[in-house]
Amino acid sequence: MLAFTLRRAIQAIGVMIAVGVIAFSMFRFAGDPVNQIVSLDTPAAEREAVRKSLGLDDPVPVQFARYFANAAQFKFGVSYQFRQPVSNLLMERMPATLELAACATVLAMVFGILMGVYSALRRDTILTKFFQAVSLIGISLPTFLIGILLIYLFSVTLGWLPSFGRGEVVRIGWWTTGLLTLSGLKALIMPSITLGLFQMTLIMRLVRAEMLEVLRTDYIRFARARGLTTRAIHFGHALKNTLVPVITVAGLQFGSVIAFAIITETVFQWPGMGLLFVQAVQNVDIPIMAAYLLMVSLIFVTINLVVDILYTVVDPRLRSTIRRPA
Amino acid sequence: MSDAVVPHRVESSPQRARPNASWLNRVLDSDIFYSFRRSRMTMVAAAVTVLFFLLAIFASQLAVQNPFDPAQLQLMNSRISPLWTAEGQSPFLLGTDEQGRDVFSAILYGLRISLVVGVLGVIFAGTLGITLGLIAGYVGGAVDGLIMRIADVQLTFPAILIALLVNGVAKSVFNNRLDAVSTLAVLVVAIGLSFWVQYARTVRGSVMVEKNKDYVAAAQLIGLPAPKIMLRHVLPNTMGPILVIATINLALAIITEATLSFLGAGMPDTMPSLGTLIRIGNNYLFAGEWWIVAFPGIALAGLILSINLLGDWLRDALNPKLR
Known about the structure:
CATH superfamily of the domain at 87-283 in chain A: MetI-like
Oligomer: heterodimer
Structural class of chain A: mainly alpha
Helix content of chain B: 55-70%
Structural class of chain B: mainly alpha
Number of helices of chain A: 13
Largest sheet of chain B: none
Shape of chain A: globular
Radius of gyration of chain A: 24 Å
Helix content of chain A: over 70%
Distance between the termini of chain A: 14 Å
Mean pLDDT of chain A: 81
Radius of gyration of chain B: 23 Å
Order of helices and strands of chain B: HHHHHHHHHHHHH
Order of helices and strands of chain A: HHHHHHHEEHHHHHH
């Protein structure tokens, strides 16, 4: 167990170093950082001075080491467009993205599991057909189209919900939250649905497939033979066993929810990290792009690591396979 | 799509097979065609997909104007609603936008761009993935380890993120001065680099199974060079699953391109794809001009849905376990 945890941790660090190399090369080689800072008519001598002050004349490995040391302290340089430290910009916008991603995940889990269980237990009802149609739409419609559709319905036509922004936010320390005000909650509804729909279909399909599989197993047959109530069999025995993979997938998907928030945040002008990243791509603001890549990778790698370790804690059957060297 | 899918060759059943049957007869006699005929939804999806491709190919013949030639646009014709509404005007079937562009013509031209980027992206991703997968599976050892490690790492990142990064870096390298055609090339590369992993994994899995079979040993024995064995003998036996991945990837590639264009990191306004049209139209939604965004959206959704349905059917039809 300990060896497995260690090996996974070393792998995670390896991935982070690889991503760091990519982020650094983007920062250093994709366009000249000096050109972004000086204006077109800056004399050559001054350019050299800027170059020296940024440490760009040092050997590349030294620069890489410095970039890495800075990144470890969350110093990612200065944004070309905002002239502000990138870390400040990211920290300012992180609460918005995390709140949105968390709401979307909760929404996806609750409705995904409910719909999945229902469509596994009542396989031929109209409601099941409807759920399956919804899941096909969730997979086939691009996220931004769903967002536009919701805006047209609930903002333009009905005027019920705001079409952009976070509404009023409350500041708690450095964290800003929209969960405590009515306008904040209203602003959260449509973006969460847009972001969560794809995960919801994924979870629904997974729960349905797992339920159907579990319901065929021997221990369920024995439970029926023992005369347990249908409800106890379905929810006490079957559902419990389907939840392990569901929680794993939902956990692993949290990373991609944060990445897909890029699209949702653009549609709803949600002031989060994703919107910042899109603006950075549009305006070729490399420091923000590199920093975003590092931040998101850190979140991904951490989640993967935690889920992998938790998985072995939750499911003892996996431990025997892990002991074998991979 | 799991690695477990067994490659399966289409063979007509012995009772029905006629000697010297023509190529067409073999197709009509195959299990695949039978399963195609059995599924009405698949036939509709195939028809819709073919229709979209035809519309894209004959865009310049079907359109009432070239919507991106400023000389053909008249501001007099701006903001006309679709033909069946009260203010509709012929020949603008689906209405016009702010600059007097016919929405229907814009969709035809946009469809063309979307399909070109999608198809080229899939070809690029497929070539890259198949090559790396063949090498990894056939050579094995450290090469295999390296390629698959890269694939594992990349798989943890969503394709859209990778495509956006590739796009941003390319823009930066070219100093943000890319013309429309180079942007298209950048998009193809970005999509290719985001989607190669699945091909590589699948091909590698199949190759590892195939390479221990007698026919490969026989080919090695008569002294064929490794690249020839890989391409001519091993690769054809891995084509079933590849075809399924390619179909589903086509839908994904089109979505990715549309998303990038919607985010303003894809095709420019001068050469718009469906995603660009949706981004432009989105600006007029609040003015009540819903048709500028609705019809490109419907076209995109219909295209993706029908390709997805085809892909789903192909996956089931080529998977002998499900019969």
